[in-house]
Design goal:
2 helices; two-stranded antiparallel ribbon; 2 strands; Cytochrome P450; 65 residues; ATP10; single chain; alpha+beta; elongated
Length: 65
Amino acid sequence: MGSADELNRGYFDDISELKQHSGKIALANKILIPGIAARKFPAMHVIYSDGRKSKLPIVFDASGR
């Protein structure tokens, strides 16, 4: 439960604070998951309802293909 001050704040106080902080209501880390701790996305074969097939993740080589 919030403090009494927080409960007594008005709508315009909240909007003013959001504008001051560029719409952010809480501090967040710049990096969600460090690269060293991140797991590799598993390869998946996808078959669409129209019969097309894809493999995820889609990986491009240096030439952009």
